[in-house]
Design brief:
It is a single chain. The chain is mainly alpha-helical. The chain has 4 helices and 2 strands. The mean pLDDT is 90.
Length: 132
C-alpha cells in the first residue's frame, strides 16, 4: 500500500482577548457565545432600569448601551472581532468611571448597577477567543 502525505494547515491558536494583554482568564469562549452574552446584557440593560424605577438619565444611558451591544454583536459591520472587543472593553471602563464619579446619577443603587454592568462588559470582552 502506498501512503500519501497529507498537508494540513495548522489551526490558528485561539487565545482569549485578555490573554493578549497578559491577563489570565478563567474561561474562554467563542464569538457566538460572546454574541449571546451581549444579547442578554442588552435585554437586562433595557428592562432592569424600568423595573426598578431608575432615573431617566440611567434609563437612557442603558438604552444607548443596549443599542451599542447589538451593533457590536453584529458581524456585518465590517469591523474585526478584536476591534469590536476593544470598543466594548473601553465602553465598560468608561461606564465604571462614570458610575464612580457620579456623573450620571447620585443614587448609590444606580451607580452600583452601572459599575456591575461595566464590569460584565469588560469580562465578556476579555474572555472571548480571538486569533492570535
Amino acid at each position: 500500500m502506498a501512503t500519501k502525505a497529507l498537508r494540513t494547515k495548522p489551526k490558528p491558536e485561539l487565545m482569549a482577548f485578555g490573554e493578549n494583554y497578559g491577563l489570565v482568564v478563567p474561561t474562554k469562549y467563542s464569538e457566538e457565545t460572546h454574541g449571546l452574552f451581549n444579547v442578554l446584557m442588552a435585554a437586562d440593560s433595557v428592562a432592569t432600569p424600568m423595573i426598578f424605577g431608575m432615573s431617566w438619565r440611567t434609563i437612557w444611558l442603558c438604552r444607548a448601551l443596549a443599542g451599542a451591544l447589538f451593533v457590536l454583536r453584529d458581524k456585518s459591520t465590517g469591523m474585526k472581532l478584536r476591534y469590536r472587543l476593544q470598543i466594548e472593553a473601553a465602553t465598560g471602563i468608561a461606564l465604571i468611571l462614570l458610575a464612580l464619579r457620579g456623573s450620571i446619577t447620585p443614587w448609590l443603587f444606580e451607580r452600583l448597577y452601572l459599575m456591575i454592568g461595566g464590569g460584565m462588559m469588560i469580562a465578556n470582552a476579555l474572555m472571548t477567543q480571538v486569533e492570535s
